[in-house]
Amino acid sequence: MSKVLALVLVMAAPAFADPVPASPSPMPSPYGTSPFVVAYQPPPPEIDHAHHGLTLEAALGGGSTSLDASAGAVTFAIGGWATHDLAISFRITGVGRYDFVGASAQYFPTHALWFGAGLGALDERSMDAFGDTARTSGGGGFVRAGYNLATSGAHALYLSGELQLGGVGGQLRSVGLLALGYQLL
């Protein structure tokens, strides 16, 4: 009987021993059960450096005026972004005998296509009988449209068309121009 009791004690010994901690079972992954499955991490959002703060514009082109069949054109503008899609700037444009100086608004309905309009002063230069330059001033406005041919960050190369109308010396004057330009977005 003592042998039987010793056999029962030997067989029951593991039951009286301290339990061995079981390895923790990992939480099941909602993405699968393989240990190599990794949860999807979306890419960080792109940072749009364009359409914030200062905007600058410079353009060269050609056009036609009420007095000139063809003429060179130059434009410069400086301003700021009121919203992501709307820029307000001070603009100077010279085409042939005409200079426009005034305020401009530029709206971007898409990333590349934009429209602009403005009001200001339209000046006409002419030569008098003695060869002196005379200036006649009046009020005017413009409308324009453009397309960004290439953009890189906050820089754009664009092609635009513009029509200016104004009253100078009691007469209606018109200026049309096409320009290739650069804009700091």
Briefly summarize what is shown.
This protein has 185 residues and is mostly beta strands. It is built from one helix and eight strands; from the N terminus they run αββββββββ.
* CATH architecture heading: Beta Barrel
What number of structural domains do the residues give? 1
Number of strands: 8
Task: Output the radius of gyration.
Answer: 38 Å
Structural class: mainly beta
Residues in helices, as a percent range: under 10%
The side-by-side strand order for the widest beta sheet comes to 1-2-3-4-5-6-7-8
Explained architecture:
This protein has 185 residues and is mainly β. It has one domain: Porin. The protein has 1 helix and 8 strands; from the N terminus they run αββββββββ. An 8-stranded antiparallel β-barrel has the order 1-2-3-4-5-6-7-8.
Layout of strands and helices, then pairs:
Layout: H1 2-16, E1 54-65, E2 71-81, E3 86-95, E4 98-107, E5 113-127, E6 133-152, E7 155-168, E8 171-184
Antiparallel strand pairs: 1-2, 1-8, 2-3, 3-4, 4-5, 5-6, 6-7, 7-8
Keywords:
185 residues, mainly beta, Porin, 8-stranded antiparallel β-barrel, 1 helix, 8 strands, 8% helix, rod-shaped
